Amino acid sequence: MSCRCTSTEGANTFFSEEASQYLKKFRKKGLAKEQRYLAEGILSTNVTGKSILEIGSGVGGLHLTLLKDGARAAFGIDLAEGMVDGAKQLSHEMGFSDRASYRAGDFAHIADEIAEADIVILDKVVCCYEDVDDLVAKSLSKTRGVYALSFPRPIFPVKLSFQTMIAIGKLFKWPFRPYWHDWDAMLKKIRADGFQEVAHRDTFVWAAYVFRR
Ligand SMILES: C[S@@+](CC[C@H](N)C(=O)[O-])C[C@H]1O[C@@H](n2cnc3c(N)ncnc32)[C@H](O)[C@@H]1O
Fold it and tell me: Which of 20, 125, 136, 181 to mutate to test the pocket of ligand 1 (most atoms within 8 A of CB)?
């Protein structure tokens, strides 16, 4: 079995176990700060009647909020089955079961089967996946208008904490560990694909960018 496959299975197990915590946090506190920044940037592009594809959608708080704000429909894909179950539960609770649909799987492996959308979101996902070039290229190709993503800021304390986690993960052979990629190179590829920045705000840990084609 290839290395990438193993980490995908590890991510499924890890994030499926985390799903109940994600649900609890969203029900109690709503969107996290970086998600609010993404939502504000996306809303500035006018979401009325637009379709959303959220990759690594977790329990769905971000796209469900955008549905509340006027987006027409959302499709969430996550490689963790527990996250997809959580998102279905939350969309039902928030009254959006008819406008939100979900699929469990690795987006990069099944991209050919996934429809394009007006707005594509990857919130804290690129640091959970080894082949970031493939993930970004395939997700850009699904974007008709707006591309929004968040990722760890390339500053010393954030890089150090991620690299410490990565080193410990490797040492103890964790089934899942995060990844540190060349974030500037990633942004360059997004811009080279014809996307222009419409919003950018940072929390201490996360950079949240919104681009438009
Ligand atoms: C840190 S969590 C963030 C979840 C959600 N975006 C949020 O911010 O609450 C990253 C999520 O991305 C998912 N993920 C990572 N790589 C993925 C891929 N290639 N396809 C689908 N989901 C992926 C993981 O399973 C996990 O649920």
Answer: 125
The pTM (predicted TM-score) of the whole model is 0.96
Place 3 in a pLDDT band, splitting at 50, 70 and 90: very low
φ, ψ of residue 189 to 5 degrees: the values are -65, -40
Distances (CA, A) of 157 to 39, 87, 180, 206: 26, 32, 13, 12
CA pair distance 94, 8, nearest whole angstrom: 30
Give yes or no for residue 6 having a pLDDT over 70: no
**Ligand 1, pocket residues at CB < 6 Å:** 11, 15, 22, 55-58, 77-80, 83, 106-108, 123-125, 128-129, 135
Ligand 1 center from residue 8 Cα (angstroms): 11
Domains of the chain (ranges plus CATH)? 3-212 (3.40.50.150)
Q: Which residue is listed with tokens 């490797």? A: 170
Paired strand residues for 100: 74
**E strand residue ranges, the chain:** 51-55, 73-78, 100-104, 117-123, 143-152, 196-202, 206-212
